[in-house]
Design a protein that fits this description.
The complex is a heterodimer of chains A (about 250) and B (about 450). By secondary structure, chain A is of the alpha/beta class. Chain A is built from 8 helices and 12 strands. The chains are: A alpha/beta (about 250), B alpha/beta (about 450). Chains A and B meet through helix 2, strand 7 and helix 3 of A and helix 5 and helix 6 of B.
């Protein structure tokens, strides 16, 4: 469903990603690990369409209606409507816009795109409350402005809530585990595992192996200096945990 | 030396004075003697005051002189328009509502709960001496004196001591179209006794698009000790009008004044807000938003006078500018040598969303006490690209994302209006304005 081919990104003359190749199938969880500055977040952001990054070479092909379409040619909101979701490493605070208004606007955009009737506020409220309960989120977050005065852990949970509401086909989790205690990590992982199906795929970006105890990957990639230096099964994560990254190059 | 421009200004100024003179003469002898004397004093002051001009520091960024060229006459349409019921423009139909049409009071709601609402013209010499004279101070400001001299009548609202007035008191100014330009001079005095509490909404609305006209409003507020008043002003007049709103507040011991100003209307707006924290422990919370588009110009001048100790003032003004809109914020905070332990905070934030709009923002702190906490700040910028991207990444199209964020920028403080029905009214007013703005400049 996703095929990244020779993806190369330059920022101010420096190559951040140097010809990334990555293929993902439906129903699979891929993990990307790597040291700081290896290009993990850049990869996540360019898939979602962040305006700071543009590819100098390569393409990101994504299956839309059984055709492979280059995501680089779509606006960020078009990608989201087609089922691409990025859980942000640093979720953005939006004063003055309540969580429920924001979530319903997002949800209804996707309904509209799929030709499904929009959900009215009452029904949406019930739908939202149910999802929040599963993530052990307090009801007070329904009407609070998006991410404003949320703790680090609550912000990450709010990202997973958005994912649960929007039900994407490709979810990219950008260091969702950073800043989470063990209990919150379990809840977040549980949220991901519930959503997993044979129709969607997850790309989990992380520094540490511990999240992968809860979200078990099918494939692990090591990204170093803008290149994927190794790809293997879940045991690779344990090996990295044990030996660090230096031995790989 | 007098330049040609000075001469031109002087001529138009004399034209304005001549036009106003006949309005003044018309009202001069209406009502009780004390009011006639007050008008006369004010008119004499108008004649001896220099016209506001960009040469004066207080008027440096706001050119008011086009106003002087309008051939003003007295407003004649002073009744509620056909099809208007007294609830229109109110908050939820249950308010205590007073309507003024083209500056003239058209109704006085029945007295409830000790609340007193009266016309100046009905007040006897004794009422005046006991209740009005001690609190009404002669002004030195040009537009305040012009209001007093030309006012048809005044409105006095008094909230007696230890009384909590519910629901909200709504003062609704309606502008009606006239054939010629008119000056409208509504004059309000609001007094709150010790421990009195009330929420007030003041609206300025146009019934239809009017001829180029001028609303010159004056509101004076006097809070006795421990009185708590919230005053929300919703100015949404049509784009042909000039609007000057002078608001003077006097705060006694431990009183609380919470003000919210929303400006979406008029071609040119000048809000002059002065509050004097005369006795210890008073607090003033002043918030404002302005949504500026087309050729609109909005100027907020605030002056907080900390005269006594332990006073608190908090100012937050936020504006969104589009097209060729202009905004001015001038916030002066004065802290008297005796006003120790003053806390004063001031912030002005602007979103510039038009290629040709402009903001002039100027804090002015004059602090003569040493044990005080005062801060001020101003920002002028665009929407944050990360915020826009965040919404886009959630399937919200960029255009809609920009609108949501702009709305959030102001809604953030609209949500803090203490009176819920007033807050709702502001939200209803700004909604369509926010939707109609162009937002031509957004981060790419």
């Amino acid at each position: 469903m996703l095929e990244i081919k020779n993806l190369t990104i330059e920022v101010e003359g420096t190559e951040i990603l140097k010809g990334i190749n990555l293929t993902m199938q439906e129903g699979k969880v891929h993990a990307i690990m790597g040291p700081n500055g290896s290009g993990k977040s850049t990869l996540a952001k360019i898939i979602a369409g962040h305006p700071d990054y543009s590819a100098t070479k390569g393409e990101i092909l994504f299956k839309i209606n059984n055709k492979m379409v280059n995501l680089l040619e779509l606006a960020p909101e078009e990608r989201a409507k087609e089922g691409v979701f990025l859980a942000f490493q640093y979720p953005v605070e939006i004063p003055g816009v309540s969580n429920t208004v924001f979530l319903r606007a997002a949800f209804n955009e996707i309904c509209k795109h799929q030709g499904v009737e929009e959900m009215d506020p009452m029904d949406f409220d019930a739908y939202l409350r149910e999802k929040m309960q599963r993530l052990h989120m307090d009801e007070k977050y329904i009407h609070r402005p998006v991410n404003v005065d949320f703790s680090g852990g609550e912000k990450k949970r709010n990202e997973i809530l958005q994912m649960a509401i929007l039900n994407p086909r490709l979810a990219i989790l950008d260091e969702t585990d950073s800043g989470l205690d063990v209990d919150s990590m379990r809840i977040v992982a549980d949220g991901v595992n519930r959503l997993k199906s044979s129709h969607n795929a997850f790309l989990v970006i992380t520094h540490y192996q511990r999240l992968l105890n809860y979200i078990v990957p099918d494939v692990v990639h090591i990204l170093q200096n803008g290149q994927i230096v190794r790809t293997a099964g879940k045991e690779l994560a344990l090996e990295v945990e044990d030996k660090g990254y230096d031995w790989l190059t | 030396m007098m330049t040609t421009q000075d001469q031109k200004q002087k001529n138009t100024w004399q034209g304005l004075i001549a036009a106003c003179e006949s309005i003044y003469q018309y009202h001069r002898d209406q009502g009780p003697d004390w009011y006639a004397q007050d008008r006369q004093r004010a008119w004499n002051d108008v004649l001896s005051t220099e016209a506001p001009s960009p040469k004066n520091e207080r008027w440096k960024y706001t050119n008011i002189s086009p106003l002087f060229e309008l051939p003003f006459v007295r407003a004649e349409k002073t009744g509620l328009p056909a099809g208007h019921d007294l609830r229109t423009g109110g908050t939820d139909g249950t308010d205590i509502s007073v309507f003024l049409v083209n500056g003239v009071i058209v109704n006085i709601p029945p007295a409830t709960n000790g609340l007193s609402i009266r016309r100046f013209s009905e007040l006897s010499e004794e009422d005046y001496t006991r209740n009005i004279a001690p609190v009404l101070r002669p002004s030195t400001a040009f537009f305040e004196n012009l209001n007093t001299a030309l006012s048809a009548d005044g409105l006095w609202i008094h909230i007696p001591q230890k009384t909590q007035i519910k629901p909200c008191i709504h003062i609704c100014h309606i502008a009606l179209p006239e054939e010629h330009p008119v000056i409208v001079s509504p004059r309000i005095l609001l007094t709150a006794g010790p421990f009195a509490e009330a929420d007030i909404l003041m609206s300025f609305l146009s019934w239809e698009i009017t001829t180029a006209s001028f609303t010159n409003a004056l509101t004076e507020v006097v809070l006795d000790r421990n009185a708590r008043i919230s005053l929300t002003v919703n100015q949404n007049e049509d784009q042909n009008r000039y609007h000057v709103n002078s608001l003077n507040v006097l705060q006694n011991r431990d009183s609380s004044f919470r003000h919210f100003s929303s400006v979406t209307g008029a071609r040119l707006t000048r809000n002059e807000l002065t509050t004097t924290l005369k006795e210890p422990g008073a607090s003033a919370d002043l918030k404002g938003i302005y949504l500026v588009q087309g050729e609109q110009h909005v100027d907020n001048h605030t002056e907080i006078r900390h005269i006594a100790c332990r006073g608190t003032s908090n100012q937050l003004y936020k504006g969104i500018l589009n097209d060729r809109g202009r905004a001015v914020f001038n916030g002066r905070v004065y802290v008297h040598p005796e006003a120790q332990q003053t806390n004063s905070y001031q912030l002005n934030k602007n979103l510039l969303m038009g290629e040709q709009c402009r903001v002039d923002t100027k804090p002015q702190l004059e602090i003569f006490a040493d044990d005080v906490k005062c801060s001020h700040g101003a920002t002028i910028g665009q929407l944050n690209q990360e915020e826009i991207f965040y919404l886009q990444a959630r399937a919200i199209p960029k255009k809609q994302a920009v609108r949501m964020l702009a709305r959030g920028f102001v809604e953030d403080i609209v949500n803090q209006i203490p009176c819920l029905s007033s807050g709702r009214k502001i939200s209803e007013t700004i909604g369509p304005v926010l939707s109609s703005m162009t937002y031509e400049k957004t981060p790419s």
